[in-house]
Design goal:
Blueprint lengths: L2 E2 L2 E4 L4 E4 L2 E3 L4 H14 L2 E5 L5 H15 L3 H4 L9 E7 L4 E11 L2 H11 L3 H29 L10 H4 L6 E7 L2 H4 L5 H4 L4 E6 L5 E6 L5 E4 L5 E3 L7 E5 L1 H6 L9 E4 L6 E8 L6 E2 L17 E2 H9 L21
Helix pairs in contact: 1-5, 2-5, 4-5
GO molecular function: gibberellin 2-beta-dioxygenase activity; metal ion binding
Keywords: Dioxygenase, Iron, Metal-binding, Oxidoreductase
EC number: 1.14.11.13
């Protein structure tokens, strides 16, 4: 079976959604159609048989855990997030906070090698693990974007992927660590310490595509069309993939950049590794002609990634950005 149909499970407390799981080893035409369907309906899906070697994932996870296990004073020796670097609770520049610590890094190998000197006691090992992981998930992202173009019947199958294959691609990798709440709640009112807290608040990802890997601790939630928040069941054997704002623009609104958030766990540490596939800063983002019809004109004005990124940094984490770039006369919010 190529894909597991989404199912919803009711309990007294919440609704759990099982996202479509696409087996990339299946028939290519069927796989591309299933991916398009998932992007239209959810903006999220999982992939298995993804081709990223287990040892590359394991080395990346080990290096990540080693860093977050360091004393706080040691971690602060890393350049503080502005926005790249180490961050603890503070997210961005506009006052957003969450119960999370993270490393946000550019994916350029020379940048990784230089930053590794303050991140790890064995810089060469850290740099090697991170660079190998980035290369592997970039290839996965490119393959998925090519499959999307095929499923959308766009003749130029590399219309999306060439933006992140570019040597000047502004892609990022973020390592997130959500400590269990008892650790975060020391010396605080115990009555609130057993409640899950917001680790990373409601938002959409501004880039093209996100490839997410996490351990077996839950916390990710997505917002459905009716506004309900539903938890996503963790599955360490797969990658989660979600549509970014730029891909929603380039598919003329056909794909959905779904809003999501992460909660902490009361008793277990959650760690995730997110690869954000971004274009070069000067890349022109526009709707391909094949996505425009007389009944579906272009919804968004052309813009550069630098322009969109500047607008995103000027807003709060949960603010909607795409509305700033919609065509005049189009009254929709997103």
């Amino acid at each position: 079976m190529v894909v597991a149909s989404p199912t919803k499970t009711h309990s007294e407390e919440h609704l759990t959604i099982e996202l479509p799981t696409v087996d990339l080893s299946g028939d290519r035409s069927m796989v591309s159609n299933l991916i398009v369907k998932a992007c239209e309906e959810y903006g999220f899906f999982k992939v298995k048989n993804h081709g990223v070697p287990h040892d590359i994932i394991a080395k990346m996870e080990k290096e990540s855990f080693n860093f977050f296990a360091k004393p706080f004073d040691e971690k602060q020796k890393v350049e503080l997030a502005k926005p790249l670097g180490y961050g603890c609770k503070n997210i961005g520049f506009k006052g957003d906070i969450g119960e999370v610590e993270y490393l946000l890094l550019n994916t350029n190998p020379l940048y990784i090698a230089e930053r590794s000197k303050t991140i790890s006691n064995d810089p060469a090992k850290f740099s090697s693990a991170v660079s190998a992981y980035i290369e592997a998930v970039r290839e996965l992202a490119c393959e998925l974007l090519d499959l999307m173009a095929e499923g959308l019947r766009i003749p130029d199958r590399s219309v999306f992927s060439r933006l992140i294959r570019d040597g000047d691609s502004d892609s990022l990798v973020r390592l997130n660590h959500y400590p269990p709440m008892p650790l975060l709640c020391k010396d605080k009112d115990s009555s609130t310490c057993n409640q899950n807290k917001v680790g990373f608040g409601e938002h959409s990802d501004p880039q093209i595509l996100t490839i997410l890997r996490s351990n077996d601790v839950g916390g990710l939630q997505i917002s459905l069309h009716d506004g309900a928040w539903v938890p996503v069941t963790p599955d360490p054997a797969t990658f989660c993939v979600n549509v970014g704002d730029l891909l929603q623009v380039m598919t003329n609104g056909r794909f959905v950049s779904v809003r999501h958030k992460a909660l902490t766990n009361s008793y277990k540490s959650r760690m995730s590794m997110a690869y954000f596939a971004g274009p070069p800063l000067n890349a022109r983002i526009a709707v391909p002609p094949e996505m425009i019809t007389p009944t579906k004109p272009a919804l968004y004005k052309p813009f550069t990634w630098a322009e969109f990124k500047k607008a995103a940094f000027a807003l709060r984490l949960g603010d909607r950005r795409l509305g700033l770039f919609r065509m005049e006369g189009d009254e929709q919010v997103a």
